[in-house]
């Protein structure tokens, strides 16, 4: 208790004498003026003289300090309000450190011991003893009042928050509690004069009372805090466990969110946003622009991506629970295997995108054959050759740039949807395959990804070429340039979706290796 | 295509009971007697109207083969409706219903509407499971029941639409939280509360003709 009290004391000193030694002369001046004022007051209001007994002197002094206190309060109210919470904090901080033995000491031994120490600390302030007294009482009072109200408010706030079903206190709520706290400190100051008129003995017992009060409220804070934390914890667990024993679903769910945003969700949002925008455009009699996400969804790319994500997640959960069950060398070995597979699946970023596309079919068939599953890329190849036919036969004189753009975006969306669908199907087939050969599978998938993304780049370039032809004859050069940019943009999107689908297959490969 | 809601359905049941045929009949209004075995999951989608609202049904047609069982289970999550199908001419497909039901209940949300379907009602002469048995099973497990024929299209439309109606009612009653996508319901773009800045987009008149070709 002594430490905390003196800390209070010191901090109070700091408050009034920010740079204590240097500022003291100034303070003395102001005190002197106050003394003058008080002397005037004496003439008017009191019959006391200086020669009278020490107790009266103390009374006078307390009056002085009272006056002074009011004055200081008026001079620097902002620092007052700022500083007091700090002293409260100090109280709170020191209280947990105080062992219960100390409390017992107080009860068993005579109650005066700590009080004497209290009074001892007062003379250290020399001429300012009464000044210091005021500090201690007022600060302790305000501190204890503050702590009590804080405990009440906080615990009340927390329970009400808990009752409203949220697991943790809302920051706004806490901020509101804090701000409602401030007037309370001022109240504490106003009640000060009553305490001061009690004289020294009263004051001393007051200090004991207050120190005990601080201690008990401190304990209350700690206990209440722990109780609240426990309640929060229990409540959180209850809410989390509701209908989900063992957190199976939650684990899966959290996993989704912690890792990365789910692409299909983002795409769906983008699609919906675009649909709304399109509607607006329609209403304004503008030509409707082909939307990639909508078309990708129409070709069932989105739902296949979603299903692939679910499959991938399932495999991931399986791997994680296996990793959790292992220890020691087994764990290290498994982790190494996982890492090796990831390394096998690293795509080399080569920018020479215009590879030879003439042997596309052979390349795809060759890549697939390594996996030993029954899957064909016929549909993708057919769609691609249809697109090539269309591009060859297109009459640019008749086909408007808007039509051309719509068709181009649709081609990209359809090819991408088919590629994603194939990856999803490959994932399913690999999971039911009897004998897995992870290294071959990884190699095949890398080849497939590279080949398909090359195809997309190739198609995008061809589509853009058509626009460039159009550009030479058209007067809407800006418009066409925008459309070309859009084609390249969406082809880049296509490629990233395909690469994402490939990434989703990595856990499928890893599951095959265990 | 713009819609007020999107419902996710799953179709489950033993292999060969006609799950993919039911889907094809519903989405394309045709019957294909010889069908490739479904691998993992295939998809179908169709727009229906309930209570004047456009609803998109997104149907996940799962493989019935035992080998795909563990895979298809991972697709149950987030379905608002399930069609649990058996073949009235093969008793074992009826006997396996309990297993399917347990699976479905375990891997999907508890509010999922489950429709029990006895398919191939056109093959009356080869019937092994009485209609009453199907009804009794449905009653016992709190399911909706219907006998259908993917071949003649009898009750196919009804099976899908009645399930949707049931889900729609649950939404109205507030059983389904439509903002939680785990329930298998998505709100259509024009109803999306995330776009309050576009009041013109919600125009009901325009929503019918919207969407792309």
UniProtKB/TrEMBL annotation, chain A:
InterPro entries per the UniProt record, alphabetical: DUF719 (IPR007998)
Skewed-composition ranges (Acidic residues): 1-17
Keyword list, A-Z: Phosphoprotein
Chain intervals for the UniProt region annotation (Disordered): 1-28
Family: Belongs to the FAM114 family.
Protein name in the entry: Protein FAM114A2
Species the sequence originates in: Aquatica leii
Organismal lineage: Eukaryota, Metazoa, Ecdysozoa, Arthropoda, Hexapoda
UniProtKB/TrEMBL annotation, chain B:
A GO term, aspect molecular function: GTPase activity
Chief place where the protein resides: membrane
Keywords: ER-Golgi transport, Golgi apparatus, GTP-binding, Lipoprotein, Membrane, Nucleotide-binding, Prenylation, Protein transport, Transport
Species the sequence originates in: Aquatica leii
Gene Ontology BP terms: protein transport; vesicle-mediated transport
High-level lineage: Eukaryota, Metazoa, Ecdysozoa, Arthropoda, Hexapoda
Protein name (Swiss-Prot/TrEMBL): Ras-related protein Rab-2A
Compositional bias annotation for Gly residues: 200-213
Entry GO CC: Golgi apparatus
Compartment(s) where it occurs, according to its Swiss-Prot or TrEMBL record: Endomembrane system; Golgi apparatus
Family statement drawn from the similarity comment of this UniProt entry: Belongs to the small GTPase superfamily. Rab family.
SMART domains found in the cross-reference section: RAB, RAN, RAS, RHO
Coiled coil: none
Pfam families the UniProt entry points to: Ras
Its membrane topology: Lipid-anchor
TM region positions: none
Region entry Disordered, spans: 188-213
């Amino acid at each position: 208790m002594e430490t905390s009290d003196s800390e209070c004391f010191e901090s109070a000193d700091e408050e009034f004498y920010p740079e204590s030694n240097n500022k003291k002369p100034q303070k003395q001046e102001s005190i002197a003026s106050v003394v003058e004022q008080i002397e005037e007051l004496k003439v008017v209001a009191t019959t006391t003289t200086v020669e009278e007994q020490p107790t009266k002197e103390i009374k006078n002094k307390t009056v002085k300090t009272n006056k002074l206190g009011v004055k200081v309060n008026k001079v620097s109210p902002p620092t007052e309000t700022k500083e007091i919470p700090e002293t409260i904090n100090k109280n709170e901080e020191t209280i947990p450190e105080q062992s219960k033995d100390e409390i017992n000491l107080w009860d068993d031994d005579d109650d005066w011991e700590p009080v004497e120490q209290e009074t001892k600390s007062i003379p250290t302030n020399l001429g300012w003893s009464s000044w210091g007294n005021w500090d201690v009482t007022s600060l302790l009072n305000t501190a204890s009042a503050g702590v009590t109200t804080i405990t009440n408010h906080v615990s009340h706030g927390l329970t009400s928050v808990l009752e409203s079903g949220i697991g943790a206190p809302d920051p706004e709520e806490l901020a509101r509690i804090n701000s409602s706290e401030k007037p309370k400190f001022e109240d504490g100051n106003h009640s000060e004069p009553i305490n001061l008129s009690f004289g020294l003995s009263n004051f001393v017992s007051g200090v004991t009372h207050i120190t005990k009060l601080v201690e008990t409220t401190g304990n209350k804070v700690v206990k209440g805090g722990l109780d609240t934390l426990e309640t929060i914890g229990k409540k959180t667990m209850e809410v989390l466990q509701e209908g989900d024993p063992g957190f199976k679903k939650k684990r899966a769910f959290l996993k989704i969110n912690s890792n990365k945003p789910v692409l299909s969700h983002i795409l769906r949002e983008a699609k919906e946003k675009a649909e709304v925008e399109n509607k607006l455009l329609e209403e304004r009699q503008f030509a409707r622009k082909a939307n990639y996400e909508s078309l990708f969804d129409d070709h069932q790319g989105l739902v296949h991506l979603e299903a692939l994500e679910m499959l991938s997640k399932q495999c991931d959960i399986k791997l994680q629970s296996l990793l959790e069950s292992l220890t020691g060398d087994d764990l290290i070995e498994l982790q190494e295997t996982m890492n090796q597979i990831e390394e096998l699946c690293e795509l080399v970023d080569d920018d020479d995108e215009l590879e030879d596309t003439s042997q596309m079919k052979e390349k795809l068939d060759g890549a697939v054959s390594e996996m030993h599953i029954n899957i064909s890329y016929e549909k993708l190849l057919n769609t691609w050759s249809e697109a090539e036919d269309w591009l060859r036969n297109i009459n640019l004189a008749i086909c408007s740039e808007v039509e051309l753009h719509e068709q181009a975006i649709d081609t990209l969306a359809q090819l991408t949807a088919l590629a994603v669908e194939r990856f999803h199907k490959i994932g399913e087939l690999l999971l039911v395959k009897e004998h897995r050969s992870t290294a071959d599978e990884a190699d095949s998938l890398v080849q497939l990804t590279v080949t398909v993304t090359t195809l997309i780049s190739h198609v995008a370039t061809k589509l853009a070429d058509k626009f460039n032809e159009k550009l030479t004859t058209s007067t809407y050069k800006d418009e066409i340039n925008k459309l070309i940019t859009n084609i390249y943009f969406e082809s880049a999107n296509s490629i990233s979706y395909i690469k994402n689908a490939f990434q989703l297959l990595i856990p499928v490969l890893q599951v095959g290796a265990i | 295509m713009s819609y007020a809601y999107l419902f996710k359905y799953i179709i489950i049941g033993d292999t060969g009971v006609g799950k993919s045929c039911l889907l094809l009949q519903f989405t394309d209004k045709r019957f294909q007697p010889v069908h490739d075995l479904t691998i993992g999951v295939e998809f179908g989608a169709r727009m229906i109207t309930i209570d004047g609202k456009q609803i998109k049904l997104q149907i996940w047609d799962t493989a019935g083969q035992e080998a795909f069982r563990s895979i298809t289970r991972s697709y149950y999550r987030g379905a608002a409706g399930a069609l649990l199908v058996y073949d009235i001419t093969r008793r074992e497909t009826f006997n396996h219903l309990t297993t399917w039901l347990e699976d479905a209940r375990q891997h999907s949300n508890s509010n999922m509407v489950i429709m029990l379907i006895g398919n191939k009602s056109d093959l009356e002469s080869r019937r092994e499971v009485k209609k009453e048995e199907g009804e009794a099973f449905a009653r016992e497990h709190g399911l909706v029941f219907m006998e259908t024929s993917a071949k003649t299209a009898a009750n196919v439309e009804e099976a899908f639409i009645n399930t949707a109606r049931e889900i729609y009612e649950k939404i109205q009653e507030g059983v389904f939280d439509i903002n939680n996508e785990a329930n298998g319901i998505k709100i259509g773009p024009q109803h999306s509360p995330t776009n309050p800045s576009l009041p013109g987009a919600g125009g009901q008149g325009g929503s019918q003709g919207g969407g792309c070709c």
